[in-house]
Amino acid sequence: MASSATSNLAKIQHVVVLMLENRSFDHMLGLLYPGKQTPSGQPFEGLTGNETNADASGNAVKVSPIRPNQQNAYFMPGADPGEGYAHTNAQLFGTSTAPTPPVATCSGFVTDYAATLPWDAKNDRKVLAGTTANDIMGVFPPSMLPVLSGLAKGYAVCDHWFSSVPTETMPNRAFACAGTSEGHLDDSKQAKGLTVPSIFGRLSDANLAWAIYGYDEEPLTRADFPDTKEAPNSHFGKFAQFQAAAKAGKLGAYTFLEPEWSATGNSQHPNYDVALGEKLIHDVYYALRSNTAAWNATLFIIVYDEHGGLYDHVPPPRSAVPPDTFAGDDGFDFTRFGLRVPCVLVSPLIAAGTVLRAPTGATPYDHTSILKTIENRWGVPALTKRDAAAPDLSPVLTLAQPRTDDPLHGVTVPVSAASPYSDSDPPSHLQEVHAQLMAMLPLPDPHGGAHHMPPALRTSAEATKYIHARTEAWKAHKAGQR
Questions:
Q1: Which residues, other chains included, contact 99 with Cβ-Cβ below 8 Å and sequence gap of 6+?
Q2: 473 falls within a domain
Q3: Which of 30, 70, 235, 396 could hold 26 in an S-S bridge, CB 3.0 to 4.6 Å?
Q4: CATH number of domain containing 249
């Protein structure tokens, strides 16, 4: 007989994912439940407040709460930490090359950040005044993140959700959409696009509705997979269109949301404005609640693609199933997960105060658990061996009747002090990736050939203009082909 949680998965008609940028679990939610347990006695893998990393002189640097009145509080840790494979190894093992066996101590965050800060300054990556290597140990108290923390307490938090691969953004986003990065560990290599099918193509094959929404621009995910590039324009849009579809009860089986990628945007990528991300989470949540019938059949997943170089004290498991036979960059075999990231699960079928994790010894939750949930709910075949082995999210859906309360009632969305960024700053890294993906689209090039390199994009505004123009040309080109 199916459990109530498993049978409740059949009640879900809409899975909605908001994937934000580059924050670790401890950094955002490590202080959610003091004492490492919930008021009801559930264990919670948070912080005691005594966790440390050593600096270059061997001094212990303790985790410390970020204070709302400190300079640039919502822009902590003040610069962009190292996030690629070598940096992640340095943070986990103290060396850029993983040892054999790869036993992590999570002791290299301060020293790696100390090495990264001069590189950021040299390469025009903004380092805010007063930033030090010790800031990598800063963690947000729940009071500073009332939206994310309020939803985590009001519904469920997964305290053992790991990024799929120990590296940067695009490979992890590929795992979230396709169960593989085709061996890539590097954003720049993946910016040429992938060749594998995605969950979006699987849903199309099953005649199930889906959509991908960007924020102010249409989504970069559209240009990442063959089946999304081939999909009709009607599958893609911007945030205002998502809000309208949610209110009208017209969301499909799966909706994937992207933030706004610029340095003035709401992605929460370090060292951008975390408060703007709080506003985005708030707005998605209330868009979903705006249609009661649809809301009662919705599972909303708030998750971050990778840890972004920020401190987390839990060593990633070494039990990951390699997704396929693509050779991994730098000899990586895809048997290690990446670091923990925040994952908050929201549905009126979830009991307040829930902490979700896989049973001891079982395959842990990672980004491919999103895929597995969709596959199990709608009978869609697995994309790779990784998502085939992943647990789904049905155990979190324990209530027989939808709740009607609102855990965010009365919550005020935080607002940061004046931003140190403007559209005249250099493009963000993700804007550069987005521009490269758009450049690779098979559009006629006035200089001959099907593809071209993006021009030199000196400012965020120039990147936005280029991405918008290229997207509109692509949409028009596709419309003319049909």
A1: 93
A2: no
A3: 30
A4: 3.40.720.10
